[in-house]
Amino acid sequence: MLDCKWEGVRIRDIEALVKPRNVARAVTFECADNYTTSLYREELAGDAMLLAHKLNGEPLEEGLGFPVRLIVPSKYAYKSALWVVGLRFTRGKELGFWERRGYSDSADVWRNDRYRR
To answer: Which of the four pLDDT bands, split at 50, 70 and 90, describes residue 115?
Structure first.
């Protein structure tokens, strides 16, 4: 979806509060439906990387990830996990639900990197 105004907490602000150890290079997001995905901390450092709770000024609806969803605009949508209930800082990336099924772990939309080669 284009022209969306997401509101939430930046991942880097969460990191500032949590203060993960230097060995933690990645974050795994865990969801209410047992979905998981993982990204390197560097990939989550920008202003647009959020745990969002509002879309266009309204609280998220269940179908859009209520109560909280991950927003990572530079990645394919399977990296923007819905219904996030927890996150873990890890030494490395962990293959998530779609990545274990053949989807690319980098999910870079600018390189059309959707499927593992």
So the answer is: confident
ω into residue 59 within 30 of 0, thus cis? no
Helix (H, G, I), strand (E, B) or coil at 100: helix
Report phi then psi at 47, rounded to 5: -65, -30
Domain count for the chain, please give it.
1
The candidate with the shortest Cα–Cα distance to 74, out of 46, 100, 32, is 46
Angle, alpha carbons 3-93-76 (nearest 5°) = 25
Model confidence, pTM: 0.90
* Phi-psi region at 112: left, alpha or beta (left = phi > 0; alpha = psi -120 to 50): left
Range of the domain at 10: 6-111
Q: Kindly report, residue by residue over 54-84, the tens digit of the pLDDT.
A: 999 999 999 999 999 999 998 988 999 999 9
DSSP 34: S
Distance CA 94, CA 88 (A): 10
